[in-house]
Write a structure and sequence with these properties.
The structure holds three protein chains of three kinds.
Chain A: H1 2-8, H2 22-49, H3 53-60, H4 71-77, H5 80-113, H6 119-128, H7 138-147, H8 155-179, H9 182-190, H10 195-206, H11 208-224, H12 227-232, H13 241-251, H14 256-276, H15 278-290
Helix pairs in contact in A: 2-14, 4-14, 5-8, 5-11, 5-13, 6-8, 8-11, 9-10, 11-14, 11-15, 13-14
Chain B: E1 2-13, E2 16-27, E3 31-35, H1 42-50, E4 57-62, E5 65-66, E6 77-80, H2 92-102, H3 107-121, H4 136-148, E7 154-158, H5 166-183, E8 186-191, H6 194-200, E9 203-208, E10 211-216, H7 218-223, H8 228-233, E11 240-247, E12 250-252, E13 268-274, E14 279-281, E15 289-298, E16 302-308, E17 316-321, E18 331-336, E19 342-345
Parallel strand pairs in B: 3-8, 3-9, 6-7, 7-8
Antiparallel strand pairs in B: 1-2, 1-4, 4-5, 9-10, 11-12, 11-13, 13-19, 14-18, 15-16, 15-18, 16-17
Helix pairs in contact in B: 2-3, 2-4, 3-4
Chain C: H1 2-34, H2 52-59, H3 61-92, H4 99-107, H5 114-124, H6 131-140, H7 155-180, H8 184-193, H9 197-208, H10 210-225, H11 229-234, H12 246-256, H13 260-292
Helix pairs in contact in C: 1-13, 2-13, 3-7, 3-10, 5-7, 7-10, 10-13, 12-13
The chains are: A mainly alpha, B alpha+beta, C mainly alpha.
């Protein structure tokens, strides 16, 4: 057939309209297969959470369940320790998110709208803080909070996450404020606004999308963090959910179904944030990365 | 009473001086246009009057008060920006009343004054809308409204029409002129468009390289430019310049019968300036020179003919009435209106 | 204006910069200081030991193997998430039906915590009923219960694969952003010139994606240096320290053995490595910016 002959041909000649183009189908099948592979791990957790430990041990984890078993969720949700973990994590993530964004707004505004000699260098210094492994500040911070008697409270985590959020928040806010036209600031100043009023009444309301981006990013990162709670907490009462997850693994060592349900519940807040604010999430990730 | 007075204003960025001493007195109610090519310092000058830029030295007074070091908001000025600078998250009414609300003006007074201004500009129906929902012309009017409500001593306009398309620009130009008449306000208006300058201004201030080249009524500047720069900048198409020599006031030019145009002080190398509208096709045999038509641009109401001559390396531009047909390649006899002949000395100053 | 600008600069920067200095810069600098001591983490007394800790690094077999493992991790991180992310981005960018859904699926793991990802993959590698061995058994039709994470030969690589699973999504969205930034008229020129799909990708799209590639590679390398959480969950650096990385080794020495002086020395090494990479990254970014602006 003439049509199939042109499909194989390369450049040069004019290609007649095709009746059948296999590429979209091939691409779709490729993506579909990869998607299943990518989803498999997550799907496995979902499956495990609705199966009994016995079923899993017998090697039935990867089969579609004939009946749902909700006992794992009941067990996890009725465990008061889990409530405590969730509450602790929230008490760390919410203020640390808010504080880091607030500090990023302040610094980002100066770097974007009130640059000074050497401000680019200071900005670069702050932003590069984003890239260093946290291990390089682990020991001095442990010593600092130990001396202050704050180990095994939520404070060190709030403070450290606030500080660690400054680079990304400053970067994103500066880049966003830079897109706010200078005449807006000047018009406001001519009308009698102080710099603080320009920031709060003009720049900030315009920048709500950037703040939404940061809020999703920061909340997710802090919620998911493991290293800092591991260093700063000792008692079970102060553990965050990710730490709790690891410690409860010991308690339910072979109760895989319960572990699955726990993982899912622990991930639920970030999953919800992700699914609802995916657009912001992706924007923040790429903005933070590309402009770095 | 002087509305605005600039005394020996200088501005430098580091070592680099960009404004080299500017003096200007503006009467109350005058419409002043700053014009010049980009980078000539006209916008910087405007921003220094507004207080957004600081002066390096000199004195600025507004309504006879020294405001050289005053905060922009305390200078009793209002500014309309090229980009309009409307706050995108505020309605038109909130944009107009922003300054009043910052100053904690009572709510009903804010409302009354907003309505007054909206009435003047015929934008009452737009008050609840947001800038994004407005056309370019409407945004422009809101920006002007935000300036009017402040009741300033001086209005500053920074190239306010350059973001509009050609048709709207003409319309808004008229409207600004009308507004000026109605409010009787003092206006400083910056533009690089000489048509805007000619049509709007009571007085034009021509800037170049950080100095004022000439100040005066548009027609004076057009007819009696102080120097070659002003002569070339004002008028479209611009003046033809021809290099020549003069001896005791008699101008010598090969192939151009012009020795009769006496300029008393002309001596040595000079530049001759002829506007395109001051040349015409001679109907008698007695012409000043003959030229070959290189190219014709038909503009509808008139045509522009580009002429090759023996005495100028650049083609000369001549306006031709549309009733006369000119073809490329024609040899034309051309005569020049002696009354409007300009002669510039080597440094560029008018003789 | 100038004075008031200076006032606001100071007022607005004071808080963010002092928090940053106190919690990030100061600890960073004092890590160098502690690297020269034998502090044990608790006592108020410690001695200066000079370069002893740094000298010890070279004779520490575990440090050397952790360093090698970190290099292996970096090398794989340069290849795996980059190639996978690029392929996925190109496939999704071809206007395939369901593109946005595929994008979400590949990106989803990024919002999971390393703890959860680690746990999920522990199950994949589980010898008896893990997905990997189940598939192998299904394909070969034979018993197979290799313990991926419990064998020194495979533990590190198994963790890196799990890590890449999560990292691919980020590479993909960066590449997708890069693809949308390619001006449409350039691709139309390809069409007019009669380039094949492969020629178009090879000669136009890939070169234009250079800025994205710089970012993807740099982020992968930098993030691989941070590899800790997932390792802690999956192997804890074991078996027999076969999957230790520098970050893991630093944690073990400092918080398991309480050799905080020695741990600080390791963290100084970590810092210097990161600094080198970041400087390379910024330099490369600048270079790319000059060409692709």
């Amino acid at each position: 057939m003439a049509d199939t002959a042109t499909l194989g041909s390369t450049s040069g000649d004019y290609v007649a309209p095709k009746r059948f183009n296999p590429w979209p189908v091939v691409i779709f099948i490729c993506l579909f297969t990869l998607a299943i592979l990518f989803l498999a791990p997550t799907f496995g957790v979902l499956l495990s959470s609705v199966k009994t430990t016995r079923d899993i041990a017998l090697g039935d984890l990867w089969a579609i369940p004939s009946s749902m078993y909700w006992g794992n969720y009941v067990e996890v949700l009725s465990n008061p320790a889990v409530h405590g973990y969730m509450l602790n994590t929230f008490l760390v993530a919410a203020p640390a998110t808010a504080f880091s964004i607030a500090l990023g707004v302040l610094a980002g505004y100066v770097f974007a709208k009130l640059p000074f000699k050497g401000s680019d260098l200071v900005f670069l210094l702050v932003v590069s803080g984003m890239f260093f492994p946290p291990q390089v500040i682990l020991i001095p911070l442990f010593r600092l909070f130990n001396l202050m008697g704050l180990i095994d409270t939520l404070w060190p985590m709030i403070i450290v996450h606030t500080a660690l959020g400054i680079p990304i928040c400053t970067l994103l806010m500066r880049n966003f404020f830079a897109t706010v036209p200078n005449p807006l600031r000047e018009a406001a100043i001519l009308e009698g606004a102080s710099e603080w009023q320009v920031l709060t009444k003009i720049a900030l309301p315009i920048s709500l999308p950037a703040i939404a981006v940061l809020a999703t990013l920061q909340f997710t990162w802090i919620w998911n963090d493991f290293l800092w709670p591991l260093i700063f907490t000792q008692s079970d009462e102060k553990r965050t959910i990710m730490l709790g997850l690891v410690f409860m693994k010991g308690q339910y060592s072979v109760a895989w179904g319960i572990q699955g349900a726990m993982s899912l519940i622990a991930s639920l807040p970030t999953l919800i944030v992700f699914l609802f604010f995916q657009r912001y999430f992706i924007k923040g990730m790429t903005m933070g990365a590309v402009k770095g | 009473m002087s509305s605005l007075s600039l005394k020996n204003i200088k501005k430098s960025y580091g070592q680099h001086e960009v404004i080299h001493g500017v003096d200007l007195e503006v009467e109350k109610g005058e419409f002043i246009v700053f014009v010049g090519p980009s980078g000539c310092g006209k916008s910087t000058m405007l921003r220094m009057i507004s207080g957004l830029e600081e002066v390096t030295s000199g004195q600025i007074s507004i309504a006879d008060k020294d405001v050289t070091r005053a905060h922009p908001s305390k200078r009793e000025i209002a500014m309309v920006f090229q980009s309009y600078a409307l706050f995108p998250h505020m309605s038109v009414a909130d944009n107009i009343s922003f300054g009043l609300r910052l100053g904690k003006t009572p709510k009903d007074e804010v409302k009354r004054r907003v309505n007054e201004v909206a009435d003047t500009l015929q934008i009452t129906h737009l008050l609840e809308r947001f800038p994004r929902q407005l056309s370019g012309g409407q945004r422009q009017r809101v920006a002007i409204g935000r300036a009017i409500i402040r009741n300033p001593q001086v209005f500053l306009f920074d190239e306010p029409l350059s973001n509009l398309d050609a048709a709207l620009r003409v319309q808004m130009r008229l409207e600004i002129a009308r507004l000026h008449k109605r409010l009787g306000a003092t206006i400083i208006y910056v533009t690089h468009d000489q048509t805007e300058a000619m049509t709007l201004a009571d007085r034009i201030v021509v800037f170049n390289h950080g100095v004022i080249e000439q100040v005066g009524r548009p027609i004076d500047l057009y007819e009696r430019p102080a120097n070659k720069f002003v002569a070339g900048f004002l008028g479209a198409p611009s003046m033809n310049f021809i290099g020549a020599t003069a001896q005791q006031g008699a101008i010598q030019l090969d192939g151009f019968n012009i020795t009769d145009a006496q300029k008393a002080h002309a001596n040595g190398a000079i530049t001759l300036g002829i506007r395109p509208e001051h040349m015409r096709i001679s109907d008698t045999e007695a012409c000043d020179f003959s030229a070959k038509v290189e190219l014709v641009e038909e503009l509808g109401s008139e045509s522009l003919a580009y002429l090759q001559t023996s005495f100028s390396s650049d083609p000369l531009t001549m306006r031709v009435d549309h009733s006369i047909t000119v073809r490329e390649g024609d040899m034309l006899p051309v005569s020049v209106n002696r009354e409007f002949l300009h002669v510039f000395e080597e440094g560029g100053a008018s003789l | 204006m100038n004075q008031s600008n200076t006032f606001w600069r100071v007022a607005l920067l004071a808080l963010p910069l002092s928090v940053f200095a106190l919690i990030i810069i100061w600890p960073l600098l004092s890590s160098f200081y502690y690297g020269f001591t034998n502090w044990n983490g608790f006592s108020d007394n410690y001695d200066f030991v000079g370069f002893e800790n740094f000298g010890k690094l070279f004779s520490d077999r575990l440090f050397m193997s952790a360093a090698i493992n970190t290099i292996i991790w970096m090398a794989i991180a340069v290849v795996l998430p980059t190639v996978l992310g690029l392929s996925l981005a190109l496939l999704i960018d071809s206007h395939v039906p369901g593109g946005p859904i595929f994008k979400t699926i590949f990106y989803l793991p990024i919002c999971l915590s390393a703890v959860v990802v680690g746990q999920v993959w522990v199950w994949i590698y589980q010898p008896d009923w893990g997905l990997l061995n189940t598939i192998i058994e299904y394909v070969t039709n034979d018993r197979f219960n290799y313990a991926w994470l419990a064998k020194p030969d495979s533990a590190l690589y198994s963790v890196i694969v799990a890590w890449s699973w999560q990292a691919t999504g980020l590479s993909m969205v960066i590449y997708l952003a890069g693809l949308t930034a390619i001006p449409g008229d350039l691709l139309e020129v390809c069409e007019l010139e009669g380039a094949t799909t492969w020629q178009r990708i090879r000669h136009v799209i890939l070169p234009l994606l250079t800025p994205a590639t710089v970012v993807v590679v740099a982020l992968s390398v930098i993030n691989s240096l941070k590899g800790f959480d997932i390792l802690y969950i999956m192997t804890g650096g074991g078996p027999f320290n076969s999957s230790d990385t520098l970050a893991m080794h630093m944690y073990n020495e400092s918080f398991k053995k309480y050799l905080m002086g020695y741990g600080s020395a390791i963290s100084v090494v970590l810092f210097l490595v990161a600094l080198t990479i970041i400087r390379l990254y910024f330099k490369q970014l600048k270079k790319v910016d000059e060409i692709y602006g």
